[in-house]
Amino acid sequence: MMLDENKHREWVQVFSALASDTRLRIVIMLAGGKMGCQEILSQLDLSQPAVSYHLGKLEHAGVLVKERNGTRNCYRLHNRISELVNVVEKEEVR
């Protein structure tokens, strides 16, 4: 299967974003469902600016979707990333 050039670049961005231990931890946390920035921050031993940086990288790469929930930002995995996480989890069971 050949990817067109645009799709190839999109997937390079996704996998580059996932190459960080911190960002991968965030993705695993969000595999359980939508979370607010403060919830994510409370589970990581990082400063608020550092968490915001990683969330921004993941959002820019198309890994996360940011949603406004009143006065706070919530994050969830993009549907295609949820599917990718499900495939990886199924492979771990084997």
Architecture overview:
With 94 residues, the chain is an alpha+beta fold. The chain has one domain: Arc Repressor Mutant, subunit A, CATH 1.10.10.10. The protein contains 5 helices and 3 strands. The protein has helices spanning 5-17, 21-30, 37-43, 48-60, 79-93, and strands spanning 35-36, 64-69, 72-77. Strands 1-3-2 form a 3-stranded antiparallel sheet. Strand 2 (64-69) and strand 3 (72-77) form a beta hairpin. The longest helix is centred in the C-terminal third of the chain and has 15 residues, at 79-93. The model has no long low-confidence stretch (mean pLDDT 90).
Outline:
It contains five helices and three strands.
